[in-house]
Automatic annotation (TrEMBL):
It comes from Littorina saxatilis. One of its GO terms (molecular function) is polyribonucleotide nucleotidyltransferase activity. This is polyribonucleotide nucleotidyltransferase. Its EC number is 2.7.7.8. The keyword Transferase applies. It is an enzyme of class 2 (transferase). The keyword Kinase does not apply. Signal peptide: none annotated. Residues 674-745 form the S1 motif domain.
């Protein structure tokens, strides 16, 4: 039976011109392919480059697959979703971004020489893709869904993260998976106040902004993530507006691709709901009690949650007695919806928050620095019930974090001399679990806080700086509290930061028109609580100095938010961030003039070329001894200059004494240039013989090329043995390495010097 095939214009032209003339076409081409799987490709001019998106040729067993290419960077994204829903109340969406070394023309440099676990770059990119897609899935869709992003090729100029988001959007669009897309994503840079769309890696080095924008139709924003060098608020708003406009062309092209190759979406089964009578009884039993809890400003995070859960348990227990056949799981879900509705109506209708604050008010803040004397720098930042302890540690330049070679091709940093590590132990939310674990959440929050502070770190810092942010209590916005506490700790440690930085999280409560789906009413909340994040529609994290924005991360639970709301949130957050800086300035307003007495020291050391062997010792023995006994590390700057790093002044004093001992003058004899000396062979090597000219001198290598006028491959050819005396001529020291240069070959010509013996070797 002949298959019905629908082709795009380009594919039909290719079919008529090439394939139809090929004998056996149907057997070799049509046989194993499914309907509509000839593939189709669309091209979009975005910025100065061209984005190509295709589908239908690769990974055809997946529910949806697409390849996107920008420049010579290509990414294949596959989407697979189970046909049955999982027993959960949220969408189990998994995004796995894999940046394979082969795509960059490299081999993994681990023991197995193959890709192992996910790198930090892969985890952060996976999170960005997830946040760009998740809001557009239907609220009642709970099937296990997985997107695999496989980087096929990387040109080193275009980052694959933007390409992956667009490829994922296309893969979901042409699949039968229920999804209300597509979305389009662009990267925005700012060079000399000019907005650049999808800048290359070299352009990003000159840019003061690196921002990823994901948008949907009608110029709505779905996700924002990026960082900058104190970007002015007006410039940031202009960049976001242009990025959203550029994304519309990508969206229209993906819609065209879906029209050509898209499969019908699966029909969603309507969710099971409570009977109307049971739902009304549940609402009447819980409405007044929930409002009473939310109106009580004396409640904190724990007591409020406990009260809400106790009311739930009591209401469900009473309903079971009256309606024994009703499903308790549906009662639980219905109760949560009622609680969320009440919580949101308090904000939207009465402009009341559960802790009594106004919509623009920041929680009470307390700060402290110099908490523990042995630390190089420390600070405690408390905002409401969010508490973060930050510590600063200085180390030598050798402690800088080396980025894996594949990530170097897509980023501007080969090694990091500033790193922020975010820790979220389970006790921070009154839970139990294994402390010390680092998951995707910790990576994401730590990277955001690090970006918020990276712009204020001095470029010429002599130390490697590690900042740890440990969340001791959490009730919302712990990553932005890490920025505040980290800024205080850096100034306490004496780091010459360019300016103090702070962070704040903004929230959104909204109502939508049931017919159009557009937002009809909304309120923006300053300094988000944990419960407001859970019940709300937006988590808008913003960090910066008084001059501008340094980091931004915006997640929406709605399928797109208008630019007007994004702009207002930026302005309201910028003002709140300045209020936080005013409070922080009362504790410490500028960096300390010098490091603390227990702080590290760095000194430069000049070693003469002839003393380098004594300084290093045999096989580097002296350097290892220096580090093990004093903790001092040595970093070579050039051939003669070295840099010493000591954790404190006492360690530096001990290191100086050891170095003096290493370089102690043993009254070595001075050799006369051009003189002939008699030495003793102490070792036979493949490349020559080691000759001892004097007991107080290190043995000197007499290379095979200097043994005889004839070409010598091995000293044994001349019957040389250990213990044998040999005459050599001295030609000074190598000006670079400081090694002694001697020759036996020149003595086979007529003698021009007097043979000398510089003392007994037994002395």
């Amino acid at each position: 039976m002949a298959a019905s095939i629908t082709l795009c214009r380009q594919c039909r032209r290719w079919l008529l011109q090439t394939v139809v003339r090929t004998p056996g076409f149907r057997a070799r081409h049509l046989g194993p392919w499914k309907d509509k799987d000839y593939g189709c490709e669309v091209s979009i001019n975005v910025g100065d480059g061209q984005l190509q998106v295709s589908s239908g040729k690769l990974a055809r067993f997946a529910d949806g697959a697409a390849v996107a290419q920008l420049g010579n960077t290509s990414v294949l994204v596959t989407a697979v979703s189970k046909k049955r829903s999982s027993p959960s109340s949220f969408l189990p969406l998994t995004v796995d971004f894999r940046q394979k070394a082969a795509a960059a023309g490299r081999i993994p440099m681990n023991f197995f020489r193959r890709e192992l676990g996910s790198t930090e770059t892969e985890i952060l990119t996976s999170r960005a893709i997830d946040r760009s897609l998740r809001p557009l899935f239907p609220s009642s869709y709970f099937s296990d869904t997985q997107l695999v992003c496989n980087v096929l090729a990387m040109d080193g100029a275009n980052d694959p993260d933007i390409v992956s988001i667009n490829a994922a959007s296309a893969a979901l669009s042409v699949s039968d998976i229920p999804w209300n897309g597509p979305v389009g994503a662009v990267r925005v840079g700012l060079v000399d106040k000019e907005v650049i769309i999808n800048p290359t890696r070299r352009q990003l080095q000159q840019s003061t902004l690196d921002l990823i924008i994901t948008a949907t139709q009608k110029h709505k924003v779905v996700m924002l993530e990026g960082f900058g060098d104190a970007v002015h608020l007006h410039d940031l708003q202009r960049a976001i507006s242009k990025g959203v406009s550029e994304a519309q062309a990508i969206i229209q092209s993906i819609l065209q691709l879906r029209e050509e190759l898209g499969r019908p979406k699966r029909i969603l089964e309507p969710p099971t709901v409570l009977d109307v009578e049971v739902a009304e009884a549940l609402r009447s039993l819980s409405l007044a009690r929930i409002r009473e809890v939310l109106f009580n400003d004396d409640h904190d995070k724990i007591s409020r949650d406990v009260q809400i859960q106790e009311i739930k348990a009591d209401v469900i227990e009473k309903l079971k007695e009256t309606f024994p056949t009703s499903d308790p799981a549906l009662m639980n879900e219905s109760y949560n919806k009622v609680a969320k509705e009440i919580f949101r109506s308090l904000v939207l209708d009465e402009e009341r928050r559960c802790d009594g604050r106004s919509l623009t008010q920041v929680r009470d803040i307390t700060c402290g620095v110099d908490l523990y004397k042995p630390l190089h720098g420390s600070a405690l930042f408390q905002r409401g019930q969010t508490q973060v302890l930050c510590t600063v540690t200085f180390d030598s330049p050798e402690a800088a974090a080396r980025v894996d070679p594949v990530s170097v091709l897509t980023g501007n940093i080969k090694e990091k001399n500033f790193m922020l590590h975010y820790e979220f132990p389970p006790y921070a939310t009154n839970e139990t679990g294994r402390p010390g674990g680092v998951g995707r959440r910790e990576f994401g929050h730590g990277a955001l806080a690090e970006k918020g502070l990276r712009a204020v770190i001095p470029n010429n810092s002599p130390f490697t700086i590690r900042l740890t942010a440990e969340v001791l209590e959490s009730n919302g916005s712990s990553s932005m509290a890490s920025v505040c506490g980290g800024s205080l700790a850096l100034m306490d440690a004496g780091v010459k930061v360019k300016a103090a930085a702070a962070g704040v999280a903004m929230g959104l409560m909204s109502r939508t028109d049931p017919e159009t789906g557009d937002i009809s009413e909304y309120k923006i909340l300053t300094d988000l609580l944990g419960i407001e994040d859970y019940m709300g529609d937006m988590d808008f994290k913003m960090a910066g100095t008084r001059h501008g924005i340094t980091a931004l991360q915006v997640d929406f639970k709605l399928p797109g938010v208008p630019l007007e709301i994004v702009s207002k949130a930026l302005e309201q957050g910028f003002a709140a961030k300045n209020d936080v800086l005013d409070i922080m300035d009362a504790t410490i307003s500028k960096p300390r003039e010098s490091l603390k007495p227990n702080g590290p020291l760095m000194e430069k050391l000049d070693i003469k070329p002839q003393d380098r062997s004594k300084f290093f010792g045999v096989g580097g023995r002296n350097l290892r001894k220096l580090r093990s006994e004093t903790g001092v590390t040595v970093t070579p700057l050039d051939d003669t200059n070295f840099q010493l790093f000591a954790p404190n002044a006492d360690a530096m004093d001990e290191a100086r004494e050891l170095i003096e001992e290493f370089l102690k003058d043993e009254q070595e004899p001075e050799l006369e240039f051009g003189a002939i000396y008699v030495g003793r062979i102490v070792e036979i090597r493949d490349m020559g013989v080691m000759v001892e000219l004097h007991p107080k001198l290190q043995p000197v290598l007499l290379h095979n090329s200097q043994l005889d006028q004839r070409k010598v491959r091995h000293p044994s050819a001349l019957d040389l043995e250990v213990g044998q005396d040999i005459s050599v001529k001295y030609f000074g020291r190598d000006p670079i390495t400081g090694h002694i240069r001697i020759s036996r070959k020149v003595l086979q010509s007529p003698a021009t010097s007097v043979i000398r013996n510089i003392g007994s070797r037994d002395a």
